[in-house]
Amino acid sequence: MVNKPIWLSMRHFVTFEYLQGIYMGQKPYKICNTNLITNGLIEPLIECTIFASSLMRSKQTVDYICNSFPTIKFDVIYSDCLIERGLGDFEGERKCDIKKNKDFFVDGKYKVELTPPNGEPFVNFKNRVESILKMICKKYYTNNILIISHLQVLRMIKYCMSEEENYSHWHDINYNHGEIVKESYGKK
Q: Are 150 and 84 in contact (CB under 8 A)?
């Protein structure tokens, strides 16, 4: 274990559906590549707790990470709290078609606080992400952690950890598929 634990985040590997411009949401899509960018962050670790979404694409990403670094002792915790936001009727549909809906999109960007038709309300999404953050923060006090999840979840974690309530910069936060990044959330 390194002296000071580090907090790493990673968006799962890319899927064929993503490359085809499909809204994935909570559908069980498989990864289609394993292009890993570690930025030299994971290689020095001796042990690490992985918190991951229980959706297939995240599980496949976790398997790849664990198999690629056999010298690291991984403790893996899957959680439904880290699955992607439920996008309801938008899931499985082409983004280019859905983004024409002016009730939910402005300049091609989703109005994040709105509930998609038959989808997960924003407050429910925020509450479930916040509920797992207590466990993650407790583990981070003594352990390196790596969160493997989805773009909306990683954005929500960033907002929750900064205690920010203004979501106007939501779409400015990006995580590339398969790239491990270091977070600087401090110790809450």
A: yes
Do residues 24 and 98 make contact, with C-beta atoms less than 8 angstroms apart? no
Letter for the amino acid at 78?
Y
* 9 backbone dihedrals φ, ψ, rounded to 5°: -130, 150
Closest CA to 127 of 156, 162, 91: 156
Under 8 Å between Cβ of 13 and 188:
no
Give the distance, in angstroms, between the CA of residue 160 and the centroid of all CA atoms in the same chain.
Answer: 13
| Calpha distance 151→44 (Å, rounded) | 26
- Coil vs helix vs strand at 158: helix
Q: What is the mean pLDDT of residues 41-45?
A: 96
What is the three-state SS of 108-124? CEECCCCCCCCCCCHHH
Q: What stretches of 76-121 show up as alpha helix (H) in DSSP?
A: 95-98
Residue 48 amino acid letter: C
Tens of pLDDT along 58-83? 999 999 999 999 999 999 999 999 99
CA separation for the pair 82, 167 (Å, rounded) = 19
Give the start-end residues of each E strand in the chain. Answer: 7-11, 47-53, 73-79, 105-106, 109-110, 145-149, 180-183
Helices in the chain by DSSP H: which ranges? 16-19, 56-68, 95-98, 122-140, 151-162
